[in-house]
Write a structure and sequence with these properties.
Layout lengths: L6 H12 L28 H15 L3 H4 L19 H20 L12 H5 L8 H28 L9 H13 L3 H14 L4 H13 L3 H14 L4 H12 L1
């Protein structure tokens, strides 16, 4: 089915999200007047709508004008050749816009009052490649081991903590640690748990998974230490008391 992009429905999510935000692009109205070579965006888009849409792309993907358009970063935007198709990312952006329009117009239209519109921000969350933190860390670990994985985590947290780009909560990171262990990467699990406890000695998730790890590797005293700490942090966790009773009985 060919996607038919209607100006009002296509631009509405972007304008709603970004038209009231502080400007991320200079107020150079002329660069948005009479745009050329529009292949996906509506041909008669207004300068205001075009500005808001471009601003939305920049915010949603953490990109600059020069990433998609022919021009030099830091130079006057009036020197850019916005009509040129030299940048590969520009064509990828067009394809992604078609995908977003298809989702909103062809797949979400029957949800009635429950319908929500998706935008670039829905998946990208301010980063160019919309990967979850578990994916990014797994790639770093597979390529460079524990040290590369921990280094990548610290870089991401330094840059993105407090934003919605990546989830740094205990539950997410500890689940990733468990997954690495289940995949046979015990050293990586230990590296992640040590890092978590260095950041927060009272991490319930880290102590609980450490206890499980110690128990499965035959280190019963070590397991007891971590399970007791986890129970101290969360006295309501009855399943941990059950495991402690098992260990002590053995």
């Amino acid at each position: 089915m060919k996607t038919r992009i209607r100006p009002a429905s296509f631009l509405a999510p972007f304008l709603t999200l970004f038209s009231t935000m502080p400007f991320l692009l200079p107020l150079q109205a002329d660069i948005f007047d009479d745009p050329e070579n529009l292949k996906v965006l509506p041909k008669h888009i207004s300068p205001h709508e075009l500005r808001a849409t471009m601003r939305g792309f920049s915010q949603a993907l953490g990109v600059r004008c020069s990433d998609c358009h022919k021009g030099e970063e830091g130079q006057d935007l009036r020197s850019y050749d916005f009509a040129a198709d030299e940048k590969e990312l520009k064509e990828k952006a067009r394809n992604m816009l078609k995908m977003v329009a298809a989702i909103n117009e062809n797949h979400l239209q029957d949800f009635g009052d429950e319908r929500v519109s998706v935008t670039c921000m829905t998946c990208h969350r301010g980063v160019r490649k919309p990967k979850l933190i578990e994916q990014v860390l797994a790639e770093a670990a597979d390529e460079g081991g524990s040290e590369a994985m921990i280094s990548k985590y610290k870089v991401l947290k330094e840059r993105y903590y407090g934003s919605h780009s990546y989830d740094f909560t205990d539950r997410t990171i500890s689940d990733f640690a468990r997954a690495r262990g289940e995949a046979g990467n015990t050293d990586q699990t230990i590296a992640i748990l040590d890092m978590m406890l260095e950041e927060n000695p009272n991490s319930f998730s880290a102590h609980f998974i450490y206890g499980e790890l110690k128990m499965h590797t035959g280190d019963r005293p070590g397991a007891v230490v971590h399970f007791e700490k986890a129970l101290e942090i969360n006295p309501e966790a009855g399943f941990i008391q059950w495991r402690l009773d098992q260990l002590k009985a053995q």
